């Protein structure tokens, strides 16, 4: 019979066995039970359980959020390694081996698919913030354009052509391709 094997990225077999075999103390058991009882906060999150694929630049933004979250979880280990490595060149790999292993172990422990999913949810939750920022930038640009047009007395057709260019450049954010035809355009 074939068994289903789950592949965990960024975790070596030796380190995953080490983490699974760690003895559980009464204090950690009570902490885990308390964490299981607390409800998770409601998030805006992903639009559906099977969201449309993101573009390469959007996936890069998700990856940046993921890496930042992992680095935030391992900040103490990273600082310890950086303090050890400061002023060293060739001898870093020998002198700071323990700090380097602690840092890598922490990052492997926290770089999980669940953390990547949380980073993706955070990216989707920030969509509204990015949309508000684009609208604010668009309004500021329109006000500056109007001021310059009035100041220099530019003709109306120049203003309209620039406005069309700006609308093309700063269109709505697309997730998974073109927006639906029946979806109303924002601001209309």
UniProtKB/TrEMBL annotation:
<protein>
    <recommendedName>
        <fullName>COX assembly mitochondrial protein</fullName>
    </recommendedName>
</protein>
<feature type="region of interest" description="Disordered">
    <location>
        <begin position="166"/>
        <end position="188"/>
    </location>
</feature>
<keyword id="KW-1015">Disulfide bond</keyword>
<dbReference type="InterPro" id="IPR013892">
    <property type="entry name" value="Cyt_c_biogenesis_Cmc1-like"/>
</dbReference>
<dbReference type="GO" id="GO:0005743">
    <property type="term" value="C:mitochondrial inner membrane"/>
</dbReference>
<comment type="function">
    <text>Required for mitochondrial cytochrome c oxidase (COX) assembly and respiration.</text>
</comment>
<keyword id="KW-0472">Membrane</keyword>
<keyword id="KW-0143">Chaperone</keyword>
<keyword id="KW-0999">Mitochondrion inner membrane</keyword>
<keyword id="KW-0496">Mitochondrion</keyword>
<dbReference type="Pfam" id="PF08583">
    <property type="entry name" value="Cmc1"/>
</dbReference>
<comment type="similarity">
    <text>Belongs to the CMC family.</text>
</comment>
């Amino acid at each position: 019979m074939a068994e289903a094997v789950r592949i965990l990225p960024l975790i070596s077999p030796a380190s995953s066995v080490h983490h699974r075999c760690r003895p559980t103390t009464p204090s950690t058991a009570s902490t885990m039970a308390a964490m299981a009882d607390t409800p998770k906060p409601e998030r805006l999150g992903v639009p559906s359980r099977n969201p449309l694929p993101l573009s390469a630049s959007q996936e890069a933004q998700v990856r940046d959020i993921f890496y930042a979250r992992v680095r935030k979880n391992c900040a103490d280990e990273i600082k310890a390694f950086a303090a050890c490595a400061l002023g060293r060149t060739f001898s870093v790999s020998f002198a700071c081996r323990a700090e380097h292993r602690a840092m890598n172990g922490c990052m492997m422990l926290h770089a999980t698919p669940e953390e990547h999913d949380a980073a993706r949810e955070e990216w989707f939750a920030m969509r509204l913030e990015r949309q508000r920022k684009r609208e604010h930038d668009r309004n500021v640009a329109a006000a500056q354009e109007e001021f310059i047009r009035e100041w220099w007395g530019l003709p109306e057709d120049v203003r309209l052509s620039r406005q069309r260019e700006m609308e093309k450049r700063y269109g709505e954010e697309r997730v998974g391709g073109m927006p639906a035809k029946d979806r109303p355009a924002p601001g209309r």
